[in-house]
Amino acid sequence: MNGPMTSTDLESTPTHHWADKAAEELIRLHPEKSPLVCASGISPSGVVHIGNFREVITVDFVVRSLRSKGRKVRFIYSWDDYDALRKVPANLPNPEKLEPFLRKPVSAIPDPYGEYTSYATHFEKRFEKEIEPLGIAPEFIYQNEAYRNGRYREGIRTALAHQAEAVKALNACRTEPLPADWTCVSIFCKKCGKDVTKLLAYEAPNTFKYQCKICKEDFTLDLETEAGVKLLWRVDWPMRWAHEGVDFEPGGKDHSSTGGSYETGAEIIRRIWKKEPPFYVQYDFVMAKGLGGKFSSSSGNLMTLSQALEVYEPQIVRWLFASRKPNMDFSIAFDLDVMKAYDDFDRTERFAYGMEEGDEKKISYEKRIYEMSLPFPEKAPQTLPAQVPFRHLCNILQIYEGNLADTKAFFSEVLKSPYDEERFDSRATRAWNWIQKYAPEAFRFALREATAPCPKSAYPEAMKALIEMLKTKMPLAEEALATEIYNVIQAHGLNAKLFFQDIYKILIDKTNGPRLASFLLAIGADRATALLAKAC
């Protein structure tokens, strides 16, 4: 298999994760090679968003699978920081200060935030820190350094010596042929530092004569001793495949189309470097419900990994990707479906620990997804950790007005180990972040303060009966309490929905809220009856 994996190729069977299938294909293609080289990369032209993250985690899954099969792997991540900045992305501070640096390498532009040595370094280091808690640790290659240090010198010479072959490969995918003076290199002017130049002549192996359209001057560059020459993307990518010996690298939907950069790159590496292209997997877009559509660093319409980690624990971020084939687009929820994501992850975890019923194939597959989801599998406990349902946690947090210590005390009976406590802290912090920043208004509530004015109940006699029941029969199990509440309703001939609305209006100044029995249990009899009594 030399082309991109198709949907059929990636189809996960009940016992076979797609990454395991990709790993097996890599082993079949390279039975003796060690280490296998798996690659990823992006240009730090702006904030690295969650869509870009899909590439690195796609590689990480395959790397994990290969290592679990006993293969040595070199996992590289290339920062394309020798690319020129062509447009100032939206939402950056002082964008007018970046305008004079357009067409310079992103590694040669000042950091707009004033924190790092360059524009590129700012976004690189931000992303490198973001992926650490997810257990992703590639070897980073900075293309600015690689090009300037002469690492690709021979690759440039080889590409120029066989440029006609690159032209044939590219023209085969174009409606109009490339112009006669097309060249596979761009040159950064040694005077102004920009790539607005025209190659006048190349004298192998080292001499480049070029004209800068900004400086209005002609220059000569010696490849052996000077930096400034860079291959264009469609030739640069296959050159690096050949140089690094890449065996696997995924690409986005835009690179995967007919005539896209993977197809032309595959043809160029065969024609020029006489090697086969890497095994390739297409990944699709990632969106966020309520935060816009396709992400783009240049437009400023994006969601970062840090933003996702404000709401989702690291293992759940990994699970969101591990539970889907890479060539399926999906949305990361910031609405009420956050709760479904947590519930679904917890169910996968129960499968992994043998605490959820299912056939053998289903259990095996869910266990594999869970293994892929753990940032640091070696730290996982031997028994099922405490699972605090996200919805219930959010309700208790709101009762305690975001006080994590009081909320933790409420759940203390189920937290049996330091691991349980650590995970509770992680989940509770994210739950409160979600409530404050993203939860729909209808979901949020605040318990009425004891000294605040309170509306009178429309059903005072029933309310008194409810208060007396709570005083005399609490604490009860949730279902038993629910039954007692309905007994009060029936005894007074009330409409349950209207009576519930009356109670919620008193407690939280809304007409609906969390499931009433569990809500009253969480509030506690003393606090609940004190509030309800004010309405009688």
Tags for this model:
536 residues, disordered N terminus, 21 helices, elongated
Question: How would you describe the overall organization of this protein?
Answer:
The protein is mainly alpha-helical. Helices cover 44% and strands 10% of the residues. The chain has 21 helices and 12 strands. The strands form 5 sheets. The chain has a 3-stranded parallel sheet with strand order 1-2-3. A hairpin with a 3-residue loop joins strand 5 and strand 6 (207-212). Helix 1 (18-29) packs across helix 2 (50-68) and helix 17 packs antiparallel against helix 18. The longest helix has 20 residues, at 418-437. The chain is elongated, with a radius of gyration of 30 Å. Mean pLDDT is 93; it is low at 1-14 and 292-300.
Topology of this structure?
Elements: H1 18-29, E1 36-42, H2 50-68, E2 73-79, H3 119-131, E3 139-142, H4 143-148, H5 153-161, H6 163-171, E4 185-187, E5 197-203, E6 207-212, E7 217-222, E8 229-231, H7 233-244, E9 251-252, H8 253-256, H9 261-272, E10 282-283, E11 286-289, H10 305-311, H11 314-322, E12 330-333, H12 337-352, H13 360-373, H14 390-399, H15 404-410, H16 418-437, H17 460-473, H18 478-491, H19 496-508, H20 516-523, H21 525-533
Parallel strand pairs: 1-2, 2-3, 9-10, 11-12
Antiparallel strand pairs: 4-8, 5-6, 6-7
Helix pairs in contact: 1-2, 6-9, 7-9, 11-13, 12-13, 14-16, 17-18, 17-21, 18-20
Low-confidence stretches: 1-14, 292-300
Structural class: mainly alpha
- How many DSSP-defined strands? 12
Shape descriptor:
elongated
Characterize the largest beta sheet: strand count, sense, and whether it forms a barrel: 3 strands, parallel
The percent of residues in helical segments reads 40-55%
